[in-house]
Amino acid sequence: MLEGLTAELRRARASFLMRAVVWLMKRRKPVFPHSPEGFREKLSQRDCPRDAPMPAKFEQRFIVERRTLEGQEVVTLHPKSGPGEWHMLYFHGGGFVLPMFDVHWPLAAALVETCSLSITLPLYKVVPEASASVQDALADACFAELAMTHAPERIVLSGDSAGGHMALALALRLARAGGPQPGRLALFAPWLDLTMRDEAMRAVEPHDVMLKIGTLRATGEIYADGRDPASPECSPLYTPADQLAQLPPTRIWTGRHDLFIVDSRTFAGKLRDAGVDSKLYEYEGAPHVFMAITPTREAKDVFGLMKDFLES
Predict the structure, then answer these.
(1) 7-311 maps to which CATH number?
(2) What gap in Å lies between CA 70 and CA 85, rounded to an integer?
(3) For the segment 142-165, what is each residue's pLDDT rounded down to a tens digit?
(4) How far apart are CA 78 and CA 63, in angstroms?
(5) Which of 115, 118, 137, 258 has the smallest C-beta neighbourhood within 10 Å, fewest atoms?
């Protein structure tokens, strides 16, 4: 699977802390129900989704800015010393249907402190209460706002899971528009194919403590909302090579116990073939969006690689 210089295995064995966290995750109620029926039932019965509040201590750790764009809340964290040389636009994951998790705040903080960057976090409205077009409108507005006050080549688009999809989709829209382009694209376990069609995922599924193929397909159908889930618009994995070639330098991080690793490997190969400066980093035994477990050696390695990526 690791062909040429496209992918690199960073850790051949999960750290003790990572294994302990996965052990606990297996014994907790899953974030996403493990059946499509359970997922649809949970979605139909939920109250209005609310983002996890930013920790109060962040007001002392960072310079915090809050504003509203496209009728949605946006938060920016700067280092205490002032705005960073790089500005990251980061989209949180949650299958497009879940709001900001509490673990996303420490993840954002670690990126600010390790990489000395500023980070903007759109707290976008989720599906099905809002449409995908509402999410895209906020993403477009956030980048346009940043590009007015920052050199676009010093903006890095990033996100995890569905948020990785959003960051990639934004980069592709910007490339098609031919306007200012971001300088980097950094994806954490991105969701690249809503149809989950690659049968190689069946071998990974028993090891993934968070994600199940059937539930993800049901989620993808809700997000697509009548569009073809296999279209490049919904599933960036199928973007034509001539469009992929316009992407900026790209890095992808994912665990080997994550369903999305299958498509990440395929996508990394497509980026390579399109001539994009790209690389995939893999971590043995690591679950979906493992970098959100910030104290682990694996997460710290990710943050160090991100720092190197921005300094290269």
Answers:
(1) 3.40.50.1820
(2) 26
(3) 999 999 999 999 999 999 999 999
(4) 5
(5) 137
